Known about the structure:
This protein is α+β, with helices and mostly antiparallel strands and about 400 residues long. Helix content is about 25%, strand content about 30%.
Amino acid sequence: xxxxxxxxxxxxxxxxxxxxxxxxxxxxxxxxxxxxxxxxxxxxxxxxxxxxxxxxxxxxxxxxxxxxxxxxxxxxxxxxxxxxxxxxxxxxxxxxxxxxxxxxxxxxxxxxxxxxxxxxxxxxxxxxxxxxxxxxxxxxxxxxxxxxxxxxxxxxxxxxxxxxxxxxxxxxxxxxxxxxxxxxxxxxxxxxxxxxxxxxxxxxxxxxxxxxxxxxxxxxxxxxxxxxxxxxxxxxxxxxxxxxxxxxxxxxxxxxxxxxxxxxxxxxxxxxxxxxxxxxxxxxxxxxxxxxxxxxxxxxxxxxxxxxxxxxxxxxxxxxxxxxxxxxxxxxxxxxxxxxxxxxxxxxxxxxxxxxxxxxxxxxxxxxxxxxxxxxxxxxxxxxxxxxxxxxxxxxxxxxxxxxxxxx
Length: 408
Protein backbone atom coordinates (compact mmCIF):
# COMPACT_ATOMS: atom_id res chain seq x y z
CA UNK A 1 0.00 0.00 0.00
CA UNK A 2 1.25 3.45 -0.87
CA UNK A 3 1.58 5.81 2.07
CA UNK A 4 1.51 9.58 2.10
CA UNK A 5 1.93 11.83 5.10
CA UNK A 6 0.58 15.36 5.22
CA UNK A 7 2.15 16.32 8.55
CA UNK A 8 4.14 19.17 7.05
CA UNK A 9 1.10 20.44 5.19
CA UNK A 10 -0.86 20.39 8.44
CA UNK A 11 1.83 22.58 10.01
CA UNK A 12 1.60 25.07 7.17
CA UNK A 13 -2.17 25.18 7.46
CA UNK A 14 -1.88 25.91 11.16
CA UNK A 15 0.42 28.85 10.48
CA UNK A 16 -2.13 30.27 8.09
CA UNK A 17 -4.99 30.26 10.65
CA UNK A 18 -4.19 33.64 12.16
CA UNK A 19 -6.81 35.34 9.96
CA UNK A 20 -9.72 33.59 11.70
CA UNK A 21 -10.78 33.26 15.30
CA UNK A 22 -10.22 29.83 16.82
CA UNK A 23 -12.87 28.36 19.11
CA UNK A 24 -12.15 26.54 22.36
CA UNK A 25 -13.79 23.23 23.30
CA UNK A 26 -13.75 21.27 26.54
CA UNK A 27 -12.27 18.19 24.86
CA UNK A 28 -9.61 19.19 22.30
CA UNK A 29 -8.78 16.71 19.53
CA UNK A 30 -5.54 16.44 17.58
CA UNK A 31 -6.44 17.20 13.97
CA UNK A 32 -2.94 17.50 12.59
CA UNK A 33 -2.71 15.49 9.35
CA UNK A 34 -1.94 11.78 9.62
CA UNK A 35 -0.76 9.22 7.04
CA UNK A 36 -3.39 7.40 5.02
CA UNK A 37 -3.24 4.18 3.03
CA UNK A 38 -4.39 4.44 -0.56
CA UNK A 39 -6.13 1.53 -2.22
CA UNK A 40 -4.32 -0.14 -5.09
CA UNK A 41 -6.65 0.57 -7.98
CA UNK A 42 -7.03 -2.61 -10.02
CA UNK A 43 -9.28 -5.33 -11.34
CA UNK A 44 -8.97 -8.47 -9.21
CA UNK A 45 -9.26 -11.74 -11.16
CA UNK A 46 -10.34 -15.18 -9.95
CA UNK A 47 -9.25 -16.79 -13.19
CA UNK A 48 -10.37 -20.36 -12.49
CA UNK A 49 -13.86 -19.10 -11.61
CA UNK A 50 -14.13 -16.49 -14.34
CA UNK A 51 -15.05 -13.82 -11.79
CA UNK A 52 -13.71 -10.27 -11.54
CA UNK A 53 -13.95 -7.38 -9.09
CA UNK A 54 -12.84 -3.78 -9.52
CA UNK A 55 -12.30 -0.63 -7.47
CA UNK A 56 -11.34 1.48 -10.48
CA UNK A 57 -13.95 4.21 -10.09
CA UNK A 58 -14.59 7.25 -7.87
CA UNK A 59 -16.03 6.36 -4.49
CA UNK A 60 -14.78 2.77 -4.57
CA UNK A 61 -13.51 0.90 -1.51
CA UNK A 62 -12.06 -2.57 -2.03
CA UNK A 63 -8.65 -3.55 -0.70
CA UNK A 64 -8.56 -7.17 -1.85
CA UNK A 65 -10.68 -9.91 -3.44
CA UNK A 66 -9.77 -13.55 -2.82
CA UNK A 67 -11.28 -16.95 -3.52
CA UNK A 68 -12.55 -18.94 -0.55
CA UNK A 69 -14.10 -21.81 -2.51
CA UNK A 70 -15.77 -22.40 -5.88
CA UNK A 71 -18.88 -20.47 -4.87
CA UNK A 72 -17.49 -17.84 -2.48
CA UNK A 73 -14.95 -15.02 -2.44
CA UNK A 74 -14.01 -12.62 0.31
CA UNK A 75 -14.02 -8.86 -0.20
CA UNK A 76 -11.28 -7.36 1.96
CA UNK A 77 -12.26 -3.92 3.21
CA UNK A 78 -9.90 -1.68 5.21
CA UNK A 79 -10.11 1.98 6.29
CA UNK A 80 -7.89 4.82 5.17
CA UNK A 81 -6.19 4.87 8.59
CA UNK A 82 -6.88 4.18 12.25
CA UNK A 83 -8.23 4.93 14.80
CA UNK A 84 -11.49 5.49 13.00
CA UNK A 85 -15.24 5.40 13.50
CA UNK A 86 -16.74 1.89 13.27
CA UNK A 87 -18.56 2.54 10.00
CA UNK A 88 -17.00 0.16 7.51
CA UNK A 89 -17.67 1.45 4.00
CA UNK A 90 -17.36 -0.56 0.81
CA UNK A 91 -18.06 -0.10 -2.90
CA UNK A 92 -16.88 -2.27 -5.79
CA UNK A 93 -17.95 -3.76 -9.10
CA UNK A 94 -18.12 -7.50 -9.72
CA UNK A 95 -18.96 -9.58 -12.79
CA UNK A 96 -18.55 -13.05 -14.26
CA UNK A 97 -17.82 -14.69 -17.60
CA UNK A 98 -21.02 -16.71 -17.21
CA UNK A 99 -24.31 -16.13 -15.43
CA UNK A 100 -24.31 -17.70 -11.98
CA UNK A 101 -25.22 -17.17 -8.32
CA UNK A 102 -22.21 -16.29 -6.18
CA UNK A 103 -21.41 -15.51 -2.54
CA UNK A 104 -19.23 -12.68 -1.22
CA UNK A 105 -18.04 -12.56 2.37
CA UNK A 106 -16.99 -9.20 3.80
CA UNK A 107 -13.74 -9.14 5.74
CA UNK A 108 -12.95 -6.12 7.91
CA UNK A 109 -10.08 -5.46 10.32
CA UNK A 110 -10.60 -6.79 13.83
CA UNK A 111 -13.04 -4.72 15.92
CA UNK A 112 -14.88 -3.42 12.84
CA UNK A 113 -18.31 -4.79 12.01
CA UNK A 114 -20.61 -4.73 9.01
CA UNK A 115 -22.89 -1.68 9.14
CA UNK A 116 -24.52 -0.98 5.79
CA UNK A 117 -27.11 -3.10 3.96
CA UNK A 118 -25.69 -3.62 0.42
CA UNK A 119 -27.06 -1.42 -2.35
CA UNK A 120 -26.90 -2.79 -5.90
CA UNK A 121 -26.52 -0.80 -9.12
CA UNK A 122 -27.20 -2.33 -12.50
CA UNK A 123 -29.06 -1.17 -15.61
CA UNK A 124 -28.91 2.47 -14.42
CA UNK A 125 -30.91 1.72 -11.29
CA UNK A 126 -30.23 1.28 -7.58
CA UNK A 127 -31.88 -1.36 -5.43
CA UNK A 128 -31.41 -2.78 -1.93
CA UNK A 129 -30.24 -6.37 -1.61
CA UNK A 130 -33.07 -8.49 -0.26
CA UNK A 131 -32.48 -9.48 3.36
CA UNK A 132 -32.99 -13.16 2.44
CA UNK A 133 -29.70 -12.93 0.56
CA UNK A 134 -27.75 -11.61 3.55
CA UNK A 135 -26.29 -14.21 5.91
CA UNK A 136 -24.87 -13.30 9.32
CA UNK A 137 -22.73 -15.70 11.33
CA UNK A 138 -21.19 -14.28 14.49
CA UNK A 139 -19.10 -11.34 13.21
CA UNK A 140 -19.14 -12.26 9.52
CA UNK A 141 -21.57 -11.23 6.82
CA UNK A 142 -21.96 -13.03 3.50
CA UNK A 143 -24.21 -11.94 0.64
CA UNK A 144 -25.61 -13.91 -2.28
CA UNK A 145 -25.78 -12.16 -5.64
CA UNK A 146 -26.55 -13.04 -9.24
CA UNK A 147 -23.61 -12.41 -11.58
CA UNK A 148 -23.33 -12.08 -15.31
CA UNK A 149 -21.02 -10.33 -17.77
CA UNK A 150 -22.42 -6.90 -16.96
CA UNK A 151 -20.69 -5.34 -13.92
CA UNK A 152 -22.79 -5.15 -10.78
CA UNK A 153 -21.92 -2.39 -8.29
CA UNK A 154 -22.18 -3.41 -4.65
CA UNK A 155 -22.00 -0.44 -2.32
CA UNK A 156 -22.66 0.43 1.31
CA UNK A 157 -24.73 3.39 0.13
CA UNK A 158 -25.73 4.77 -3.24
CA UNK A 159 -22.75 6.48 -4.86
CA UNK A 160 -22.78 10.26 -4.97
CA UNK A 161 -19.36 11.40 -6.11
CA UNK A 162 -17.80 14.83 -6.35
CA UNK A 163 -18.79 15.07 -10.02
CA UNK A 164 -22.33 13.97 -9.20
CA UNK A 165 -22.53 16.77 -6.66
CA UNK A 166 -21.24 19.36 -9.12
CA UNK A 167 -23.79 18.25 -11.72
CA UNK A 168 -26.63 18.47 -9.19
CA UNK A 169 -25.55 21.96 -8.08
CA UNK A 170 -25.28 23.27 -11.63
CA UNK A 171 -28.72 21.94 -12.49
CA UNK A 172 -30.23 23.27 -9.26
CA UNK A 173 -29.11 26.86 -9.76
CA UNK A 174 -29.71 27.08 -13.51
CA UNK A 175 -31.67 30.25 -14.26
CA UNK A 176 -31.61 31.49 -10.65
CA UNK A 177 -29.96 34.90 -10.68
CA UNK A 178 -30.10 35.18 -6.88
CA UNK A 179 -27.67 32.27 -6.48
CA UNK A 180 -23.94 32.59 -7.15
CA UNK A 181 -21.80 29.47 -7.28
CA UNK A 182 -18.31 30.21 -5.99
CA UNK A 183 -15.12 28.24 -5.42
CA UNK A 184 -13.72 29.28 -2.07
CA UNK A 185 -10.60 27.11 -2.12
CA UNK A 186 -9.27 23.66 -2.85
CA UNK A 187 -9.03 20.38 -1.00
CA UNK A 188 -5.74 18.72 -0.14
CA UNK A 189 -5.75 16.90 -3.49
CA UNK A 190 -6.75 20.00 -5.44
CA UNK A 191 -10.52 19.60 -5.87
CA UNK A 192 -12.48 22.86 -5.89
CA UNK A 193 -14.54 23.58 -2.77
CA UNK A 194 -17.92 24.96 -3.90
CA UNK A 195 -20.33 27.22 -2.02
CA UNK A 196 -23.72 28.57 -3.05
CA UNK A 197 -24.09 32.23 -2.10
CA UNK A 198 -27.87 32.72 -1.93
CA UNK A 199 -29.99 35.80 -1.33
CA UNK A 200 -32.34 38.32 -2.91
CA UNK A 201 -31.13 41.91 -2.76
CA UNK A 202 -28.27 43.45 -0.82
CA UNK A 203 -26.80 41.01 1.75
CA UNK A 204 -25.54 43.78 4.00
CA UNK A 205 -26.84 43.47 7.53
CA UNK A 206 -28.91 40.37 6.83
CA UNK A 207 -28.79 37.42 9.20
CA UNK A 208 -27.12 34.34 7.74
CA UNK A 209 -28.07 30.65 7.66
CA UNK A 210 -25.23 28.20 6.97
CA UNK A 211 -25.85 24.72 5.51
CA UNK A 212 -23.08 22.07 5.51
CA UNK A 213 -22.86 18.45 4.34
CA UNK A 214 -20.60 15.55 3.26
CA UNK A 215 -17.99 15.93 5.97
CA UNK A 216 -18.18 12.13 6.27
CA UNK A 217 -18.04 10.44 2.85
CA UNK A 218 -20.50 7.50 3.24
CA UNK A 219 -23.28 9.59 4.78
CA UNK A 220 -25.36 9.81 1.63
CA UNK A 221 -28.83 9.76 3.22
CA UNK A 222 -27.95 13.00 5.00
CA UNK A 223 -26.85 14.43 1.66
CA UNK A 224 -30.23 13.50 0.18
CA UNK A 225 -31.98 15.41 2.97
CA UNK A 226 -29.66 18.34 2.25
CA UNK A 227 -30.62 18.23 -1.43
CA UNK A 228 -34.34 18.28 -0.72
CA UNK A 229 -33.85 20.98 1.92
CA UNK A 230 -31.91 23.25 -0.42
CA UNK A 231 -34.20 22.55 -3.39
CA UNK A 232 -37.12 23.71 -1.25
CA UNK A 233 -35.35 26.93 -0.31
CA UNK A 234 -34.78 27.54 -4.03
CA UNK A 235 -38.24 26.51 -5.30
CA UNK A 236 -39.27 30.12 -6.13
CA UNK A 237 -42.39 29.88 -3.96
CA UNK A 238 -43.65 33.00 -2.24
CA UNK A 239 -42.29 31.61 1.04
CA UNK A 240 -38.89 31.14 -0.55
CA UNK A 241 -38.89 34.67 -1.99
CA UNK A 242 -39.91 36.20 1.35
CA UNK A 243 -37.28 34.20 3.21
CA UNK A 244 -34.43 34.98 0.80
CA UNK A 245 -35.35 38.66 0.81
CA UNK A 246 -34.82 38.74 4.57
CA UNK A 247 -32.01 36.22 5.13
CA UNK A 248 -28.85 35.15 3.36
CA UNK A 249 -27.86 31.51 2.92
CA UNK A 250 -24.38 30.06 2.51
CA UNK A 251 -24.66 26.44 1.37
CA UNK A 252 -21.59 24.16 1.28
CA UNK A 253 -22.59 20.97 -0.62
CA UNK A 254 -19.40 18.90 -0.22
CA UNK A 255 -16.85 19.69 2.48
CA UNK A 256 -14.77 16.56 1.99
CA UNK A 257 -14.55 15.90 -1.76
CA UNK A 258 -11.28 13.95 -1.50
CA UNK A 259 -12.70 11.55 1.05
CA UNK A 260 -15.83 11.05 -1.06
CA UNK A 261 -13.97 10.14 -4.25
CA UNK A 262 -11.28 8.12 -2.44
CA UNK A 263 -13.97 5.91 -0.91
CA UNK A 264 -12.96 6.79 2.64
CA UNK A 265 -14.84 5.49 5.65
CA UNK A 266 -14.70 8.80 7.50
CA UNK A 267 -11.66 11.02 6.91
CA UNK A 268 -10.29 13.48 4.38
CA UNK A 269 -7.02 13.08 2.45
CA UNK A 270 -5.21 14.33 5.55
CA UNK A 271 -6.43 11.31 7.48
CA UNK A 272 -8.61 13.43 9.77
CA UNK A 273 -12.31 13.62 10.66
CA UNK A 274 -13.11 17.14 9.49
CA UNK A 275 -16.00 17.31 11.94
CA UNK A 276 -13.48 17.33 14.77
CA UNK A 277 -11.50 20.25 13.34
CA UNK A 278 -13.84 23.16 14.12
CA UNK A 279 -11.47 24.62 16.70
CA UNK A 280 -7.95 25.11 15.32
CA UNK A 281 -8.73 24.46 11.59
CA UNK A 282 -5.71 22.30 10.85
CA UNK A 283 -7.35 20.81 7.75
CA UNK A 284 -7.54 23.07 4.67
CA UNK A 285 -11.16 22.17 3.91
CA UNK A 286 -12.37 23.43 7.29
CA UNK A 287 -9.89 26.31 7.40
CA UNK A 288 -11.04 27.68 4.06
CA UNK A 289 -14.71 27.23 4.96
CA UNK A 290 -14.21 29.23 8.15
CA UNK A 291 -12.19 31.89 6.31
CA UNK A 292 -14.91 32.29 3.68
CA UNK A 293 -17.68 32.61 6.26
CA UNK A 294 -15.63 35.00 8.38
CA UNK A 295 -14.85 37.22 5.41
CA UNK A 296 -18.48 37.24 4.28
CA UNK A 297 -19.76 38.22 7.73
CA UNK A 298 -17.21 40.98 8.12
CA UNK A 299 -17.81 42.40 4.65
CA UNK A 300 -21.57 42.48 5.08
CA UNK A 301 -21.69 43.35 8.79
CA UNK A 302 -23.75 40.23 9.26
CA UNK A 303 -24.11 37.44 11.82
CA UNK A 304 -24.92 33.73 11.66
CA UNK A 305 -28.20 32.85 13.37
CA UNK A 306 -28.50 29.18 12.37
CA UNK A 307 -26.12 26.46 11.22
CA UNK A 308 -27.30 23.03 10.04
CA UNK A 309 -24.82 20.23 9.33
CA UNK A 310 -26.36 17.25 7.48
CA UNK A 311 -25.08 13.75 8.32
CA UNK A 312 -26.23 10.11 8.50
CA UNK A 313 -26.28 7.66 11.36
CA UNK A 314 -28.17 4.55 12.44
CA UNK A 315 -31.49 6.39 12.82
CA UNK A 316 -33.00 9.83 12.29
CA UNK A 317 -31.91 12.22 15.04
CA UNK A 318 -31.21 15.91 15.63
CA UNK A 319 -28.17 16.61 17.79
CA UNK A 320 -28.70 19.97 19.49
CA UNK A 321 -27.02 22.16 22.08
CA UNK A 322 -28.63 22.76 25.47
CA UNK A 323 -27.59 26.42 25.47
CA UNK A 324 -30.40 28.25 23.69
CA UNK A 325 -31.76 31.26 25.56
CA UNK A 326 -28.65 33.35 24.90
CA UNK A 327 -28.44 32.48 21.20
CA UNK A 328 -29.66 34.56 18.27
CA UNK A 329 -32.79 32.36 17.98
CA UNK A 330 -33.61 31.25 21.53
CA UNK A 331 -36.96 29.61 20.64
CA UNK A 332 -36.13 28.20 17.23
CA UNK A 333 -35.46 24.58 18.16
CA UNK A 334 -38.66 24.13 20.17
CA UNK A 335 -40.80 25.92 17.56
CA UNK A 336 -39.22 24.00 14.68
CA UNK A 337 -39.66 20.60 16.26
CA UNK A 338 -43.31 21.29 17.10
CA UNK A 339 -43.91 22.34 13.49
CA UNK A 340 -42.22 19.21 12.13
CA UNK A 341 -44.41 16.91 14.19
CA UNK A 342 -47.50 18.80 13.03
CA UNK A 343 -46.60 18.70 9.35
CA UNK A 344 -44.84 15.36 8.76
CA UNK A 345 -47.22 12.39 8.85
CA UNK A 346 -46.59 9.91 11.69
CA UNK A 347 -43.45 11.74 12.74
CA UNK A 348 -41.90 12.12 16.17
CA UNK A 349 -38.81 14.26 16.53
CA UNK A 350 -35.84 12.36 17.91
CA UNK A 351 -33.68 14.93 19.68
CA UNK A 352 -30.41 14.29 21.46
CA UNK A 353 -29.45 17.45 23.32
CA UNK A 354 -26.05 18.18 24.79
CA UNK A 355 -23.59 21.04 24.57
CA UNK A 356 -20.72 20.15 22.25
CA UNK A 357 -17.57 19.21 24.13
CA UNK A 358 -15.62 18.11 21.05
CA UNK A 359 -14.79 20.51 18.18
CA UNK A 360 -17.75 19.74 15.91
CA UNK A 361 -19.60 22.19 13.69
CA UNK A 362 -22.69 22.55 15.90
CA UNK A 363 -20.43 23.63 18.74
CA UNK A 364 -18.58 26.04 16.46
CA UNK A 365 -21.86 27.73 15.55
CA UNK A 366 -22.75 28.06 19.24
CA UNK A 367 -19.44 28.99 20.85
CA UNK A 368 -18.00 30.90 17.90
CA UNK A 369 -21.11 32.78 16.75
CA UNK A 370 -23.77 32.50 19.44
CA UNK A 371 -25.91 30.85 16.78
CA UNK A 372 -28.18 27.82 16.93
CA UNK A 373 -26.16 24.81 15.76
CA UNK A 374 -27.77 21.49 14.86
CA UNK A 375 -26.37 18.25 13.49
CA UNK A 376 -29.16 16.99 11.23
CA UNK A 377 -28.88 13.19 10.96
CA UNK A 378 -30.82 10.85 8.68
CA UNK A 379 -30.90 7.10 9.29
CA UNK A 380 -28.81 4.81 7.10
CA UNK A 381 -31.91 2.95 5.95
CA UNK A 382 -34.50 5.75 5.95
CA UNK A 383 -36.47 5.33 2.68
CA UNK A 384 -35.83 7.90 -0.04
CA UNK A 385 -39.45 9.11 -0.14
CA UNK A 386 -39.40 9.61 3.61
CA UNK A 387 -36.16 11.58 3.35
CA UNK A 388 -37.78 13.73 0.66
CA UNK A 389 -40.73 14.53 2.90
CA UNK A 390 -38.53 15.29 5.90
CA UNK A 391 -36.11 17.40 3.85
CA UNK A 392 -38.84 19.52 2.29
CA UNK A 393 -40.90 20.03 5.44
CA UNK A 394 -37.89 20.90 7.60
CA UNK A 395 -36.92 23.58 5.07
CA UNK A 396 -40.44 25.03 4.79
CA UNK A 397 -40.95 25.20 8.54
CA UNK A 398 -37.51 26.74 9.05
CA UNK A 399 -38.34 29.47 6.52
CA UNK A 400 -41.74 30.12 8.11
CA UNK A 401 -40.31 30.48 11.62
CA UNK A 402 -37.41 32.69 10.59
CA UNK A 403 -39.54 34.90 8.35
CA UNK A 404 -42.10 35.35 11.11
CA UNK A 405 -39.36 36.11 13.65
CA UNK A 406 -37.91 38.76 11.36
CA UNK A 407 -41.28 40.45 10.96
CA UNK A 408 -42.06 40.64 14.68
